[in-house]
Structure formats: C-alpha cells, structure tokens
Amino acid sequence: MLKVSYKLAVGKWSVNSADDPRTELAGLDTTASLDSPNDACRIWLYVPPARQPGLLEEAVAAAAGALGLGGSGEREAFSVQVRGESIKQGDQITIELAAGDVSAKVMTAEVHSVCSSFGQTMIRGKTGMQKLAEARINQVYENQTLAQIVKDLASRASVDTGEIETGNTYSYFVVHESKSLLRHLRELAMRDGMDLFFDADNKLTLKKFNKSSADHTFYFGIDILDLEVFNHRMTSEHILVSGESPASSRGSDTWHWIAKDLSPFQSEIGQESRSLSIRDGAVRTKDAAERLAASKFGALKDHSAWGRLTLLGNPKVKLADAIEIKNAPKPELNGRFKVASVRHILNKREGYLTLVGFTGLGGAQKAGGLLGELAGRLTGALGL
Questions:
Q1: Which of 240, 335, 255 shows the shortest CA–CA distance to 293?
Q2: CA-based, 20 to 30 A from 195: which of 34, 172, 349, 366?
Q3: Where are the beta strands (DSSP E) in 92-199?
Q4: 216-219 and 322-326 as β-strands: parallel, antiparallel, unpaired?
Q5: Which of 146, 143, 196, 192 has the alpha carbon at shortest distance from 166?
C-alpha cells in the first residue's frame, strides 16, 4: 500500500501531513478540464468553534464598546480562523499530493467562497478560468499574433500566462463585450487547433497537442480501478468554413471588399451529407479557413471516442497529457488517448483516487492529413 501525503497552503495557513499527520484536513477534491470553465478545488477542514469568552470578558468588552473603545465600527472583511491564521476570499491556495515517492503540485487557485458549519469548514477555490469567464471588454487588434492577443487579454483580466504558442497572425481581430474573455480565447484556440487550460501553477496555457508517445502507461490489474470507453458517430462529417471579406488574392491588409465567388477563399473537409457550416469574421485568408476546418473536424473526430478512467492516486497526470491503456481484457479498451479532465479525491472513506477523462488521440493533426488528401483528390479531378 502506497503511503499518501499532502502539502496544503491557504493564505498564511499551511500544513504538511508528513510532519503533522493529525491535521485539520477532512478531505479535498480538485477538478480541472480542457472543455469546462469550472476548474475548482474544495477543501474540508475540521475547525471546532473557538473558546467562548467568560462573563467577565463579555462585561469588559461591553464596557469598552460603550466608551467607544471597541474599534472604528466598520465592518471587517469576512474571514475564518485556522490555527490562529486568517483565511479570506482571494487568498492563494496551493495543493501538492504524493503517493509513495511520486509527488506533484496538482492545483493553484484562489479562495472563492467559504461555507461554515458547527464542525466543518469548506473552502472552495477557483483558478484564473473564473476571472476570464467574468471579464468582458471591448478591444481591437491589428496585425497581432495569437500569442500577443492572448497575453494582452490575460493581463487585462489579471491572469498570469505560462506556455503560449505563437500561433498565426490576425490582421484584424475584434473583442467585444457580448462575449466573455474566456469565450473569445476558446474561439481563438479553436481557430489554431490548440488546447486552452490553466496549469498546476494557475497559469494560462495555450498549445497544440502533438505528442506521438504516451506520458503515462496504465495497466489493467495494476493501476486501473475502473474504465469506460465510449465510441459514437461524429455529429458532423463535413465541415465548410467561410471567412468574412476574403483577402487571400489581394493581401491580408485588404478587407473592404466582397468577392462574388467565395469558393476560392473557403475550405472544406469531409464529404458526408451531415454538414456543419461555419462563418467567421476573423478568418480572412484561404490558409486561415483551412486551419479552422481542420481544427473543427479534428475536435469532432477526437470527441467521437472518449472515456473515464479511475486510478489509484497519481498526482503526475496533467491536462493534455498522452496516456496509454494496456492489457485490458477487451481490445477496444486499449489504446492511446489525450487527457481532457483530471480530478483528484482525497478523504478517509475513499483514500486517494485520480479520475481521468480522456478523448481519442489525433484531433487536428489527423484532420490536417484528411484535408490534404481531399485537396489532392480535388486537384486531380480538375486536371491541375
């Protein structure tokens, strides 16, 4: 049996279970996802009520209040006390978990809310995803790369950035308050076929998934407690992308014109009757339309296979990692996949578990190959 330990800090209060096994922690739960904005952690602490003042202390306090000696009378910010340390909204939370000799930081967040009862106190934390979901601004960008736009938007929402790939250049891109910053950023990520998420240090990350080998290999009968894999038909097998004011033939700076025939500026992938048509004002070149078509088709293909995996606690599993499942008794349960969500649960009833949501491996990379094959067939058919 692997020994489980943790390091937990909330504001100025911190604890290391290796040094202090009888801590206030009753349980914790962290959740992070590529597809959901609800990254969060919940921490349950046993914090018994503080000692109540005696009759003499109450009388002294009442007398001091009557004489105007009890403070300014202003309402103080809400906080709770843990071992004499004050915990309040906005305080930083860091959680590090260990199973045997494998340890890693699993989440950094900020205190978002506190729920108190007679015995337990539950602290809920949120990552920078919450700030992006709440922020709405108006801003115009000209001739900026994806990385430049993302970093500027993140700074306006007071969000730190980590690994941000350069991406493509947008000659004209408008951010408006009808959408949250999170929605704008997710749409930017989709156009360039990237994943958007917050890492364990609470830094915004934007990068492509292009791994050819597994970061983690899990074996049936050794690591895996439960496993489900779902395969279903793609919701759309034909993607058509049209930009606004095409500029491919007259340069990316030319946008005040409309072509009579949009076909040279469009991109499509797939040939089935179940089509998805996308019109995007930020797509202004043939190359941009091809990238978006490949990315959207890849995302649909990627999510046509998804699953849930329950493991003995493993703090090393991160979002956008590649995993491989081996030795499962049914062949369709084996294979390589991309980590789409990670949940860590630690409590006295269940012990330490890691729940992994995953999708099919490939995405935009495979879709790009299909797009090339389709272009080749069309070129041959036209005699070019």
A1: 240
A2: 172
A3: 92-99, 102-116, 120-126, 139-145, 161-164, 169-175, 195-198
A4: parallel
A5: 146
Confirm or reject CATH 2.30.300.10 for domain 1-49+87-126, answering yes or no: yes
Tens of pLDDT, residues 324-382: 999 999 988 998 999 999 999 999 889 999 999 999 864 434 444 444 444 444 333 33
Q: Give the amino acid at 268.
A: E
Q: Which CATH superfamily is domain 216-232+304-364 in?
A: Bacteriophage T4, Gp27, baseplate hub, domain 3 (2.40.30.150)
CA–chain centroid gap for 186, Å, is: 10
240 and 292 Cβ atoms separated by less than 8 Å:
no
pTM: 0.80
Residue in 161, 184, 209, 204 with CA at minimum distance from that of residue 322? 209
DSSP of 212-239, one letter per residue? SS-SEEEEBTTTEEEEEEEE---S-SEE
Look-up of token digits 């003042």: 53
